[in-house]
Amino acid sequence: MKSVREINIKPSCMKEIQVYPAAQSAQLWEKINFLVNDPLPDGKLKKKLQVSDNLYRLRVGDYRIFYSFGENWVSLLGLRRRQEDTYKGGLKSTDDSTPEKMPEEELELDELLARENNKKEFTFDKKPQQTLLYRQITAEWLHELNVPTVYIPMLVSCTSEESLLGVQVPPEILETLLDNLFPPPIEEVVKQPDFIVQDTEDLVRYKERGLISFLLKLDEGQKRLTEWALNGPTLVKGGAGTGKSTVALYRVKALLERPGASGNEKVLFTTYTRALIAASEQLLKQLLTPEQYTRVRVSTCDQIAREIVSGRRKLGTVEHSGIITQIFKETRANFKVSAPTAFDRSLRQKTLDRISDRYLKEEFDWILSGRGIESLEEYLKAPRPGRGHAFRAGLREAVWELYQAFNGEVKKRGIESFICIRKEALDLVREAKWSNHFDYVVVDEVQDLTPTVLCLMAEVCKSAEGLFFASDVKQSIYSRNYTWSTAHPRLQFKGRTSLLKKNYRSTAEIDKAAFDILEKEEGGDVVLSESLHNGAMPILLAGIESAAQGEWAAKFIMQMSRHLRMKTSTAAVLVPTKDIGTRLAKEISEAGIPAQYFPGRDLDLKRDIVKVLTLHSAKGLEFPVVVVCGIEEGTYPVREDFDEEEVYLERMRHERKLLYVGMTRAMRGLMLIRNKGCGHEALINLIKTDNWHVEEVA
User: Fold this and answer.
1) Rounded to an integer, what distance in angstroms lies between the CA atom of residue 228 and that of residue 224?
2) d(Cα 599, Cα 15) in Å, to the nearest integer?
């Protein structure tokens, strides 16, 4: 049975519930039910605090639930323990029996638990000192926190914040300790987003690890979009942390319950990656009735494409583990350009060699295969919106030859590429050889879909009215964009496009600083978000030797982790290439912080170690602390190396946007390192802006 009032909960309170003593859980659920039924203060168990107009606390033995409430809701803000030595004169409550009038000492201490802890502003110290812990970590205290015995000796040996943040214990154990040492003040917690709990039984499931998460509570602007323009196609755009994915989930419910619905409508909810499937399924189960959920399919676009094709024929060996990238690199290494004369051949080869593997592969995926271009003549005439500057005819001919050689090698090895499977699936649907259409198609993270996949999603829907797309404007900026209507005639979003601007995740300082790396483009849709958080100004470290990057990155990670009270392993170091990443991971480890380079496909976010990734591999990820470095000679375009100005400008445009994506992976702390002698045009110009704290190293 659902609660009398809607239960909302803050993310930090969810963590505090996870570490609440399991043996006392029944009492906690009983008190939360008691609170939801009647949140009004009674002068005994429930008290109004003075630090805020709408802040209350409920006694639960040695713990206090901090909450706020309205007519139809209760928001759980925190679950904090009262320590024995906290009480003046030895006063301590052992049960819920209380005198008619609460002692003044206890009321003052409740205020103290909720009050801001005077957190210092972050300052980067070139010669950092150790910061001693304000209290000793004892075995007795760790036992009270249910820390496994095997980790106690390591934790007891920690005497400074630096040693504690770097200790090799599971992240959830260190988080438990940090939450007890440095609990976030309730005044900060109030600013966190709310999640919706349908019933206290869901809290029980969450504590027992049977529930991954809760649905994000929508703000008024997000709520309006769930029922806005139900007769699609509809497009909602927003940056990371704006809640666009949650709006997409709520949209499913609004579509199933729209006026005039027959109760038989089917919905396809698609995400780009398999990693999001389990979470999306569980959240939809919370949001929908059991009957509604039976009419919803949650799947990746590639799963749909494979099912369509496998319904007509048996699939062969489908690409896996980067095999297509490997074939591309081998093909390019052996490829020789053809041309009418030796001079033209040399010029075309030289121009082609200056285009990166990544950019060429995107040309294949987004322009040639993505748009179904089947001849050189068609490619020579094809517009390339979003690619910056047009390729001249000679360069297009060279690119087409390489594309043909690459496709031939894939076919020769008997590999079924996803690109070909998607195209085949689209053809089958268009030829009416597949008929299991959906009434509604909701696509999350649509910016990652090639034109072919966009067409497929448009075609598997019964009509354009049933289409809803959610797009991340800050990630849809690789040089491969196109207009929606050129991808498919159903995608006419004029008058049905809305932009989410409130950012609940990263700080305003990071957003502004990263924005400085970009150059304004005609028709560009990357805009500053309205961040609800503030934090440290990003640091631009200039003038250091290349060999010292690892040492300085380690200094920043340690200091920012200490400031945020997070493990050093929550940080990421983003670099241009694998070789630089491998070298820097070794240097950072030698500086005292364990680090490892991860190829994108092998990334393990749960590993208790600093993750070193290429800038490309970091797309779509977020980390509390980020260092962007390794920008060395040979990793960025230099104007003097290009015979054609338009090719240089195209490379530079792509480079700026790649750096922007890397910088915006940071949620709370960001450092950018520019080595001595670095001639990267975009980095040199950053010194002239006001949104970076510049540290020059002599």
Assistant:
1) 6
2) 30
How confident is the model over 298-348, as pLDDT tens digits?
998 999 999 999 999 998 888 876 788 889 999 999 999 998 899 989 988
**Residues forming beta bridges with residue 666, ordered by sequence position:** 623
Helices 301-310, 418-430: inter-axial angle, 10-degree rounding: 60
Q: Residues near 658 by Cβ (< 8 Å), separated by ≥ 6?
A: 478, 615, 616
**Radius of gyration (C-alpha) of the chain in whole angstroms:** 28
Give the three-state DSSP class for 397. Answer: helix
Place of tokens 């990267």: 680
DSSP-derived pairing of the beta strands 215-216 and 195-197? antiparallel
User: How far apart are the C-alpha atoms of 639 and 334, rounded to whole Å?
Assistant: 27
* DSSP structural state of residue 160: B
Of 510, 438, 442, 430, residue with least CA distance to 474:
510
The distance from CA 265 to its chain's CA centroid, rounded to whole angstroms, is 32
Question: Does residue 401 sit in helix, strand or coil?
Answer: helix
Q: Hunting for tokens 């139900």 — which residue is that?
A: 230
What dihedral do alpha carbons 554, 557, 560, 566 form, nearest 10°? -130
Least confident of 131-135, 405-409, 645-649: 645-649
What distance in Å separates the CA atoms of residue 86 and residue 103, rounded to the nearest whole number?
A: 14
Phi-psi region of 119 (alpha: psi -120 to 50; beta: other; left: phi over 0): beta
Confidence band for 397, pLDDT divided at 50, 70 and 90: very high
CA-CA distance, 78 to 65, in Å (whole number)? 6
Which residues neighbour 342 within 8 Å (Cβ) at sequence distance 6 or greater? Answer: none
Q: Which helix (H) or strand (E) holds 551?
A: helix 549-564
Measured N-to-C along each axis, helices 301-310 and 451-459 cross at an angle, to the nearest 10 degrees, of: 70
627: part of which helix (H) or strand (E)? Answer: strand 623-628
Alpha-carbon gap, residue 107 to 111, rounded angstroms = 6
**Running DSSP on this structure, what letter comes out for residue 122?**
P
Residue with tokens 């067409």: 455
Distance between CA atoms of 106 and 88, rounded to whole angstroms?
A: 8
Q: Find out whether 214 and 197 touch, Cβ atoms under 8 Å.
A: yes
Name the DSSP letter for residue 457. H
Contact 477, 215 (CB under 8 A): no
C-alpha pair distances (Å), 642 with each of 163, 234, 389, 649, 651: 49, 42, 14, 10, 10
- Bridging pattern class, strands 195-197 and 6-9: antiparallel
**Cβ count within 10 A of residue 22:** 11
Name the pTM for this structure: 0.66
